[in-house]
Amino acid sequence: MGAGRSFPGRGRRTLLIAGALAAIGAAPPPDRAAHFAWVDYRGADPVDAVRRPGAGEYRNPIIQGFYSDPSVERVGNTYYLVTSTFSYFPGIPVFRSTDLVHWTQIGNVIDRPGQLNFTERKISEGVFAATIRHHAGRFYVINTCVNCGGNFIVTAANPAGPWSNPVWLKEVDGIDPSIFFDDDGRAWIVNNGAPVETPRYDGHRAIWIQEYDPRAQKMIGPRKVLLDAGVDPSTNPAWIEGPHLYKHDGHYYLMAAEGGTSVKHSEVILRADRVTGPYVPWTGNPILTQRDLPADRPYPVTSTGHADLIETPSGDWWSVFLGTRPYAGDLYNTGRETFLLPVKWTDGWPVILPHGQAVPMTAPAPKLPHGPTAPPTSGPLHIRTDFAGASLPPEWMMMRNPATRWYRTGGGLTLQPRPERLGDMANPSFVGRRQQHIKAHVETALSFAPARDGDKAGLAAVQNDDFYYFVGLARDHGKTELHVERRAGPGDDKDGVVIARVPFTGSPGAPLYLGIDANGGAYSFRYATTPGQWHVLLRDADGTILSTNKAGGFVGTLIGPYAVSRPGS
Length: 569
What we know:
mainly beta; Jelly Rolls; Tachylectin-2, Chain A; 2 domains; eight-stranded antiparallel sheet; seven-stranded antiparallel sheet; 2 helices; globular
């Protein structure tokens, strides 16, 4: 499905983003530019061949790839969802759906460089778990910018944007704030913060509550601890976080993640008669986890948690939550993804998944009407992006805020090679789309004529500044070559280490075709000077360096065009 196709809500967002980015500089100059005619993505997973959704079913995850910490809100018969992006820009994608299964990205909350500053922030800093809510005609997204400002709220009349500049909540420390509007219109903010006492152990946190005045845009009244340590403090539970408040049948419910976002991740529930508590945990906790299942089960989903709940107009309840799909052990390169499951109320308590049950890869779909045709976000995919619009498609991201306009769209993607490198904790000339499958193939057609030593352009597969692969055209010691670079940790050179190379004998500036093939923990790199006549440059390189387990952090792999110039040239 071509990226040039029109989908509802995209036209207005394209104009808004284009206008915002026009203010940060002109398009890149034609000299020494790298031109990518298109980027082609194909992906399918082993489970797709054996567990296909039947009539009336849907596929999990509903949004594949690095779309973590989902939060969902319903307005009328339409659902809106946001996820984390950390220090990537634009940040916090906004999706729309009418059936909770098929989602269309309609914009990004952080789409102007001046809203937040990710400069020199690690990729897994920046914006963490956001919450989206709607009240009195306005949409609210509340979030944390880790090491770049703290907790904040932005608002919009239209979820497609534009979103306001941040209102900073200086009285609210910690992370993962969520906002709740009571029946009387009062607003409350809950968040993960330090406990009142000195923490007893690593990961000892607390959930706090305080009232918020939406008109004055400030916190009011006293702060109070709702939950200290977790639902069973005697076990020293780690990292109580991602809290949300709900009201159902006259009771208030506090739901939070517990156990950390790795394989011990879980979701727990508590209940109270008043919004400020006291909250009593359910004896059947956790209401979602996969930590007790056999590690050798087929097609495992792990690390489930950071959930949010939503009620449909007919009174059915559903949950979105994050999970991971490892290809071996705790190795996954696709990041934390968005899953969907029905919620069953048991004796007045919501249960997302009974103990001992595995997250199903296919399940009966919600009884909701399908919306307009949207680009697929789950299952086997084949998407060619031709960059025909005035701005980047909303799902494409770069590392941190751009200070200048170093790229141009329309008739392909043109990048200005600049000295900033992938390993520089900066904003290099790199734009990527998420790797959404365990088995994926990414190809592009590049036109580039490197003029000086250090000039290079091609495709990069990036987990963070310290862990990436690059395949492309480069100038080294006065000669043009095709090579593969790898950076497998902060100890490697920031330019990467060349691990495969061949002389380039093609015509300068003539189209060069490049491909990256991911197959679990093995990545292969290929090239062609004639369409379809591929040559393997490097086969089955160690792709586990692009896993979250080895690279650290909270993100997934992005793959896309990259260009760099000789420093100082």
